[in-house]
TrEMBL record, chain B:
It comes from the Eukaryota. Coiled coil: none annotated. Keywords: Nucleus, Ribosome biogenesis. It comes from Raphanus sativus. This is Probable RNA 3'-terminal phosphate cyclase-like protein.
Length: 106, 377
């Protein structure tokens, strides 16, 4: 599911990270809409409930200070060969020319 | 300068980054409403311990906490660094909690830092000390931190609740950090792992290693997991075991995953952390961490989700030049970091999603932080 979310064209990361410009009402609505779509993706930060003019400090002011990411959800069964095939080309044992394609967009 | 103006903040969130960025940017801060409505209000033991650590490493910083601990006034001093420093970390968090800000603080000190930390070396909440040694430190080197003098020695393990571990951290000083163009992930060429056991049988390590290796069988032959069974004074005061895995790529990226299994801590209300109540077999822990690692690799990016914060801070502290990095999906902590960097350093990143790989490319211009104390000396 994460992959599909990343592919979404209208995912405006600038707004999600830094909030709506100048707290304009339309932008805020827009942002809330984005968040509802990306619920599971951005959940741990806490619903992004920004007050008008509250800026960055609104929301979960007492959320826990933890860098470690542990929210992997349901783990895939990596014992299965087919599951491993999805990331085969990320390993030196995979197809090097396919792996090189990853950098064409940088 | 005259009267000090304080930046006003609220709540306990991002406590470490706020202190760190306040210190690096010489911005005094006042934080109000720290857990004001909680059953146990105010700063927690590890946060007080972190404040003392900042005092240990710097000169002339002023820390004022009100009686309930819900209000902190912090005026940063000069980062001194220095040799033979010792800090007793509060046992409520493991060393990863303290190391994250300390590493960056040390870089901008007047003298190279050499400090012995005592307490809990590993737990499930913060990155393990093996992760620091084998992933985090490599990230610093990308930004021009010399590898000479950059080290973390694990002298004794200690897990929750009693700790008893000891590590020795050395950090060299830098004048500035070098901006990076770091978007190529490369391909995973080898996986290295480290397990440890302290005050328990080394069988636990064996089970984790065996299970983790089994997961990688389909993908890569070059997998080696080292063991580190501790007993006696090097094993700390509580029983536990843990595993850290790091995938190294052809482009020099280090992707990590780790965890530790130990007895639960009791918090200040006397309740055991609920996350630690069920204990699964060591095999399952091995499988789980190996799976985490593969999911991190699948996500993509030049660092794992856990290190996004460190990566972004480094980019923002660089000389006034453009840095460009690739990460997988932005982690919540990464997002929090980006906000703090804007708040304290005025550094705004721009984002370009790469739909083909489901990764994001971030660019920013560094704030050009210069180590002033070092220039003078």
């Amino acid at each position: 599911p994460l992959k599909e979310k990343g592919r979404k064209k209208n995912l405006n990361l600038m707004q999600i990270v830094y909030g709506a410009p100048a707290s304009s009402a339309t932008a805020l609505t827009n942002e809330n809409h984005e968040n509802s779509d990306d619920e599971d993706f951005f959940k741990p930060k806490g619903e992004h409930s920004k007050n008008l003019g509250g800026g960055l400090d609104a929301g979960h002011v007492n959320s826990e200070d933890c860098s470690k990411f542990v929210n992997y959800g349901n783990l895939k069964n990596w014992k299965e060969k087919e599951v491993c095939e999805d990331i085969r080309d990320r390993f030196t044992t995979g197809d090097w020319s396919k792996a090189a394609l990853r950098n064409k967009n940088s | 300068m005259g009267k000090t103006t304080y930046k006003r903040l609220k709540g306990s969130q991002s406590f470490r980054q706020r202190l760190l960025l306040s210190t690096l940017s010489s911005t005094p801060i006042i934080i109000d409403e720290i857990r004001a409505d909680d059953m146990i209000p105010g700063l927690l033991r590890h946060e007080m311990s972190l404040l003392r650590l900042f005092e240990t490493v710097s000169d002339d910083c002023v820390v004022e906490v009100n009686e309930t601990g819900t209000r902190l006034k912090y005026k940063p001093g000069i980062i001194m660094g220095g040799k033979n420093l010792v800090h007793n970390c509060a046992l409520t968090r493991s060393m990863g909690y303290f190391l994250e800000p300390l590493l960056l603080l040390g870089l901008f000190g007047k003298k190279p830092l050499s400090i012995r930390l005592k307490g809990v070396t590993d737990d499930a909440k913060d990155p393990s000390v093996d992760t620091f040694r084998n992933a985090s430190l490599h990230i610093l080197k990308r930004f021009g931190v010399p590898s000479e003098g950059l080290d973390l020695k694990i002298e004794a393990r200690g897990v929750a609740p009693e700790g008893g571990g000891e590590v020795l951290l050395t950090v060299p000083n830098v004048q500035t950090l070098t901006a990076v163009q770091w978007v190529e992930e490369g391909m995973v060429k080898r996986i290295r792992g480290w397990t440890f056991s302290a005050r328990v049988s080394s069988d636990f390590e064996h089970s984790m290693r065996f299970a983790a290796r089994g997961i990688f069988n389909n993908l890569l032959p070059d997998v080696h997991i080292f063991n580190d069974h501790k007993s006696g004074p090097h094993a700390g005061k509580s029983p536990g075991y843990g595993i850290t895995l790091v995938a190294e790529t052809t482009a020099g990226c280090h992707i990590s995953a780790d965890t530790t299994v130990s007895c639960g801590r009791t918090d200040e209300t006397g309740e055991v952390d609920d996350e630690k109540q069920e204990r699964k077999p060591a095999e399952d822990t091995g499988v789980e961490i190996a799976s985490w690692l593969l999911q991190e690799i699948e996500k993509g990016g030049v660092v794992d989700s856990t290190h996004q914060g460190l990566l972004f801070i480094l980019c923002a502290l660089c000389q006034q030049d453009v840095s460009k990095v690739r990460v997988g999906t932005l982690s919540p902590y990464g997002v929090e970091t980006l906000r703090n960097l804007k708040e304290f350093l005025g550094v705004t990143f721009s984002f370009r999603p790469d739909p083909d790989t489901a990764t994001v490319i971030l660019t920013c211009v560094g704030s050009g932080l210069v180590n002033l104390s070092r220039k003078l000396s």
